[in-house]
Amino acid sequence: MSPDRDPVTGLPIGRPVAVTGPAPGPERVRLDGRHVSIVPLEAEAHGADLADGAVGPGREALWQYMAAGPFDDRASFQAYLAACAASADPLFYAILDAGSRKAVGHASLMRIDRANRVIEVGNILYTPALQRTPGATEAMRLLAGYVFDLGYRRYEWKCNALNAPSRKAAQRLGFSYEGLFRQAMIVKGRNRDTAWFSMLDGEWPQIRQGFDRWLDPANSSERGQIARLGALTTAAIPGTTLRRATTADEAALATLQEAAYAPNRPLLGVEPVPLLTPAAEVLARYEVWLADHDGAPAGALVLDPTPDHLMIWSVSVDPARQGGGLGNALLAAAERRARDLDLSDLRLYTGDKLVRNIDWYARRGYATERVEDLPDRRLVHMRKILA
Predict the structure, then answer these.
(1) Do 143 and 107 touch, CB atoms closer than 8 A?
(2) How would you label 18-27 residue by residue, b for 16+ Cβ within 10 Å and e otherwise?
């Protein structure tokens, strides 16, 4: 997307921001999930539980890259928690296990820049009771959702560049790596190069889907979560040039879908299924992958992953770009996406009167499984199993 130009100087300038006033500051709120709750940190209420998992010999690694700690005794740890609880920026929250109601970690919202609508998550302490559990991921989902609901445009994650687990966690959670700030800080008498990551408000609807699909009870098994979070939140399909859509693509997606599916109206006698859902809802409910041409979307692949199959909700190509192989490329990208999600079962449906579409899918290995009778139409359900 090309930048705007200043009408006087002709120089490139940023696009207008719809809401330019300051964002509300985060508050000492409670956020409840299935696995954990986020509550304001209270030293007296949460100190003993947190100390059980964070204080004493064997806990040094928890504090390796933190500005504070490690703590050898509970008294010094309690003083640390009291200072955290009294702080407004960073604003600290305790993470409570939903079953035991015990505090198993803490995190903060910090560097709160209300004017520019930028905020950072940091001071993340996960005790062994929280590490590598669904609650650990859910805690980050709850805080990110809270931040974007407040109207922040940018959500940051920063860590010591040597902290490999933190860097990996940021990318798994859907943050994008932005670069390295060399000699950014002195921590505990040692140099710290800082790795910067961010997540933007326009990216959040698609990233939120990844969190919610991963946290869905249908995605859990005796061995843990079925789909990988990093695969669900990724912004790229390996081996393709498709990009994950953002809210800035809403109008272009609506225009593209209308142009691609409008010719089916007279054949079907009803509104095509993809046009029954507004573009904003599509972006909120499904994965949307775009193929750009000359700076604008020329094709869209809309997918609905489940734990056992990948539903191809729609494949749309700008009529001006049809006949050039873009439709084939999008369908091939769906197969790559399925493999990236560790799925081999692809499904789709189309109108029974769209014979050319049915034949096109059949030539690409999709077999008709069943025909569904609805009050206003008949849908042909098709399926392909990847080798």
Answers:
(1) yes
(2) eeeeebeebe
Give yes or no for a contact between 170 and 178, defined as CB atoms under 8 angstroms apart.
no
Counting Cβ atoms within 10 Å, is residue 227 exposed (0-12), middle (13-18) or buried (19+)? Answer: buried
Tell me: the pLDDT tens digits for 131-145?
999 999 999 999 999
Q: Go through the chain and tell me how many residues it has.
A: 387
**Residue 317, helix vs strand vs coil:** strand
Rounded mean pLDDT, 67-76: 96
Contact predicate 143/180, CB 8 Å? no
Give the pairing type, strands 310-317 and 345-351.
Answer: parallel
Going along the chain, which residue ranges are E strands? Answer: 4-5, 12-13, 31-32, 36-40, 91-97, 103-113, 118-126, 154-160, 176-187, 190-200, 220-221, 224-225, 243-244, 287-293, 296-305, 310-317, 345-351, 367-373, 378-385
Q: Name which of 39, 51, 221, 68 is nearest 143 in CA terms.
A: 39
